[in-house]
Amino acid sequence: MPSIILHLNVKDDKKVLEEKVTFVRNLDALHAQGRRSVVSIGSFDGVHLGHQSVLDSVLKRSDENELTSIVTTFEPQPKEFFGDERAPARLMRLREKIESLLAFGVDRVVCLRFNRELRNLSASDFIARVLSRGLGVQHLIVGDDFRFGCDRSGDIGMLRAYSSRYNYKVEDTDTLEVDGQRISSTLVRKLVETSDFVGAKQLLGRAFAITGRVVHGQHLGQALGFPTANVHLHRNRAPLSGVFAVRVYVGEKRYFGAANVGVRPTIGDAVKPILEVHLLDFSGDLYTQFITVEFLHKVREEQKFDGLEELVSRITQDVRAIKNLLHDEMI
User: Fold this and answer.
1) Mean pLDDT value of segment 13-32
2) Are 1 and 92 spatial neighbours (Cβ–Cβ below 8 Å)?
3) Which of 184, 194, 42, 26 is nearest to 109 (CA)?
4) pLDDT, tens digit, for every residue of 109-160?
């Protein structure tokens, strides 16, 4: 199945979320209600080709057995819950991940709030309360390295050991490799961080991109002659930083631009990283619209300048360099 990203129409968001997405804050609220399902569980950060292989298997088993297909994930990610500063930067915000999973064709996304209750749940209780009673699992598809329960004490061997008691089947997925390397979110993250966007595209099945709603900022870019579309990343850490040549989609229309990901050190007003995009050859109002920004080339690192005049001079150089880089595509 091809890799696709769905950008929900703003007016349809509530309806789609109500029908297809379940946010579970308390495990007692999770009930299968007699429904039997094919389930996969994981972070699914990036929804890369390895994830897509799992999703293919979920949809295949769902169709074969006329069962509901469910993907279950966690929010926040476990390492984020523990406050670990080494928690990896997300490739996708939660909204993007949900949209991508739904666009792939799964019937339902169940998002479990990772809190103290879930963290302290034993592996056996996880199987009983979450998989069996909560999700109605009849067929479970996970990677062979899947771990669950308090202190990650449960593994695929335990899932198989309990399968007859709770009447489900377990299927593990083959590891996908590219050039001898296992496809994983960690590997994609490394490629994005080092600006190997060609390599990242090979593992994702699409260009690495960030999608978000354009918000109001200080309008400083417009005053400086380089108006920008600002997008909050909804992450404590960004998976990349610096100045980039990008391709931007606004609905069905495509543009090219210069993007900065970072904390704007010259201005010094950003606590968390933000995405700013200056669209080339564009005029109009993008506020409240969703845009998708595909990263093509890195131009330089983000840096602090002595003042706005020096900043404008460098942005002018960046835009000129990006136009040269993208000349053939922009024709």
Assistant:
1) 81
2) no
3) 42
4) 999 999 999 999 999 999 999 999 999 999 999 987 889 999 899 999 999 9
Given strand 37-41, what is the order of strands in its sheet? Answer: 21-24, 108-113, 68-75, 37-41, 137-143, 169-173
CB 80 within 8 A of CB 235: no
Tens of pLDDT, residues 35-63: 899 999 999 999 999 999 999 999 999 99
Structural Rg of the chain based on CA atoms: 22
More confident residue, 325 or 6: 325
With b for 16 or more beta-carbon neighbours within 10 A and e for fewer, the 180-210 pattern comes to: eeebbbebbbebbeebbbebbbbbbbbbbbb
Of 28-37, 68-77, 247-256, least confident by mean pLDDT is: 28-37
All domains of the chain in start order, with CATH: 10-175 (3.40.50.620), 207-330 (2.40.30.30)
- Give me the long-range contacts of 161-168 (CB less than 8 A, separation at least 24): 162/124, 162/127, 166/127, 166/128, 166/131, 166/132, 166/137, 167/138, 168/131, 168/132, 168/137, 168/138, 168/139, 168/140
Answer yes or no: are the C-beta atoms of 278 and 227 closer than 8 Å.
Answer: yes
Q: Reduced to 3 DSSP states, what percent helix, strand and coil does the chain have, rounded to the nearest 5? A: 35, 25, 35
User: What is the crossing angle of helices 94-104 and 49-65, to 10°?
Assistant: 50
127 is written with which tokens? 């199987």
Task: List 38's β-bridge partners, or say none.
Answer: 69, 139
**What mean pLDDT is reported for the chain?**
89
- For the purposes of burial, counting CB atoms within 10 Å of the CB of 231, is it exposed (0-12), middle (13-18) or buried (19 or more)? buried
